[in-house]
Amino acid sequence: MSEKLLDVKNLVVHYETDEEVVEAVNGVSFSLNKGEIMGLVGETGAGKTTTALAIMGLLPDRVANVIEGSIEWEGEDMLKMSKAQMRQVRGKKISMIFQDPMTALNPTIPVGEQIAEVVMLHEKCSRVEAMKRAQDMLAMVGIVPERYKEYPHQFSGGMKQRIVIAIALACEPDLLIADEPTTALDVTIQAQILDMMRNLQKQQGTSIILITHDLGVVAEMCDHCAVMYAGEIVEHGTVEDIFDNPKHPYTKALYESIPSLDKKVDRLHVIQGMVSDPTCLPTYCSFADRCEECTEACKQGDPTTVHLEGEHTVKCFKYCGKE
Amino acid sequence: MAKRHTPAMERIEKKNAKRKKEYRSTPGREAWKRFKRNPTALVGLVLVCALILVAIFAPLLAPYDYAEQNYGAMLQKPGPGHPFGTDAFGRDIFSRVIYGARYSLLIALFCTLAALFSGGLLGIIAGYFGGTVDTVIMRIMDIFQAIPMIMMAMCIVSVLGNGIPQLVAAVMFCSMPTMARNNRAAILRVRGSDYIEASEAIGVGRVRMIVRHMIPNAVGIMIIFFVGFLAVSIMIMSSMSYIGIGLSAPTPEWGLILNEGKMYMTSAPYMMIFPAMMIMITCFAFNLMGDGLRDAFDPRLK
Amino acid sequence: MAKYILRRLVLLIPILLGVSAILFTLKTLTPGDPARLLAGNNATEEQVNAKREELGLNDPVLVQYGRYIFNFVTKGDLGTSYRSGKPIVQEVLPRLSTSIKITFGAVIFGACIGVLLGIISALKKYTWADSLVLVLSMVFQSVPEFVIGLLLILLFAVSWHILPANGIETWKGYIMPMMCIGLSSIANYTRITRSSMLEVLSEDYIRTARAKGQTERNITKKHALRNAIIPVAQSIGNQIGTAIGGGMVLETVFGVPGVGKYIVDAISNRNYPAVIGGALIIAIMLTLINLLVDISFVLIDPRLKTTIISSNKSAPKKKAA
Question: Disulfide engineering: B233 pairs with which of A37, A267, B111, C274, CB 3.0-4.6 Å?
């Protein structure tokens, strides 16, 4: 049993404006051990990125509110940390790769300096050493180190993402949160980036939370997988659990909507209806209105999370009382 | 309905409960809604309305005629008979300032309309047709822009002579490059949008395209220019008449009143303070309103 | 880079020709006969005719324009002042340095305060400080420069006797004109800085910097400011034009012997060659300054530098986008 790195308990995040309240994350709990890769899957708007930003302490000021819950890092609640303490964590212990590499780099600062910045913030070293480290990092992600003086616009999209990854890994963080790291990239480059991340993870022993809506990527990369729907984790387990033995109707529906190479299908399976409006979630199960296996009970109340064998959990009435 | 109730939700629910009926949301209504919420914009609107009323009802509000000279009451300090005092000819400054609203606002309106029609039209033509037409118009505007606005206006007035039509023409010419540029940008922004391409793709005719699709989408920006330029033209006009170019006595234009008062600056500063205040208040009101309109029509700009 | 500057310099020629054409057209439209004015009130018809011939006023307008340009380019001659009989260039050039000093002082003063207020306003957005800054800068924007000038004179010269109300015999004379033009331009800088700061602060790379654990202070200084300042720098060119225009009025208000006052005096004296000559010199100066601003702007923004150096054809397109 390896030690627990991150423990998110019953996290609730709302976005509040004058007009409406968006229930982005509703009671998410999960934990992550050292060296593990966890996949976070779900549709757009399921609350994946909000969860990630909450862990980083980067939720937008004033608008986003953490209503409940805790995020413990090695036993300490990060939500109670001061801003200065959080700055010590960000970049050094937890770092994040953002969705769009095109805009994630500062266009007026040379890339080497942008990598060196994070090194100088967290390692006690001189500017020269930091620049040296930045060049090493560039080499590590497969970019000629001599290009450290160049500006972001002189690199292609895939290379920019490598630079973003170099920034994220420069201080050898314990946890890397990758928020759809390959969505904005070409398919051929996707594979390279994922390969690189996996190799780096093996070298440095970093834990990774991989946010994606691509189930294929999860199957390839992850140890664990959590499926999110409307701000809740509806199913969580090892990759084997989720892929070979999906329990939640939403997870099953997700599989059915993936086009298959071996079978010829006339129409793809579509999940009926729309994602529940996050400003007006039902008091009962959020997925009930689209669920093909919906029963009377589903419209009465919200199901609790049920533990199945091993680490496999599912949030559905079908499995209540079958523990 | 929600998973977890928070105080913020209850506040919003209360607010929604107060709203009696569902209303159709149109861009204009949305803009008005945003405008209404902006206190500074409302202050601007109220001030502008008040000034317009003053201008309309000037003969009723002013106790004297603006040109009426009274040698028995020269250079009087503000007091009961003359709330803002009198000038060197014994004219009542309060009445002159009130009538000044009429002249200043009216001339500013003419200037702005002329500027919008000439420069605006050029800009719209350049933006809509593009290509050579655009290049030619905009290069000419570049040339005009090399001469500072107020200097251009002064040169034109010096050639044409003093008077209201000459002043309007001068302001029109000197503002042409800015107006053309702004309107061209507005049209280009609309023209480049996907919905225009989409309408082109489904074969919408040229006239219908301009009338139905482009003008309604650019009209917000043009209203913003209109209100903003009212303030600019009042400033140009008063600056010019202050240094004695553009209008001649006894027109009660605020800049001209200031010009007449500058000889008595040390002995009778009240002669300058009131008209100066009026210029400030008017431009301030237009700017507040213009800013509010900009935020209302294009919340992303804020 | 040298190629870019050269191309921009070549592009100046049509603009300056156009400006001189506009101004020359105005001059020919002016009422009154310059020959009669120069010859004096008691001149006979022959004397006036001789003068007209001497000035070349009997030639077609285009020939006159050609000669005007030719004389200016080869001899630096813009004609003579009706009033003093001296060459206009000789009269204007000594005054130009005064006007430039005031303009630059004003732009620097206005830009520093405006940018500072804009940053404060963006960092404290939607608070009372933000609203205060915006209302205050708009108050200054709403007052014509000469009204600010009058109020400052009433305050500093008439009531307190700290600064001279007239002239620039000492350095103190420069303070009030600079302040007036500077104050009225604050609103522009504040607004541009604020909106561009807000835009930049919501960019993804700011989030990247936060994710690095960088302090908010350094994020503002290192990441946001440098990107946010670009549109502000771009606007300085326009502001210089406005400042020169405002300077014309203020030089009259403060009795400063600059080009602005020269032109205003010439207008009241119906001294048209002086008006047009002065305006032409100002226009040339303004165009050159704008060119300098554009070039320095290219130096700040590395993206533009590479586009301009690598491909000359795509450069304007990139800039427009």
Answer: B111
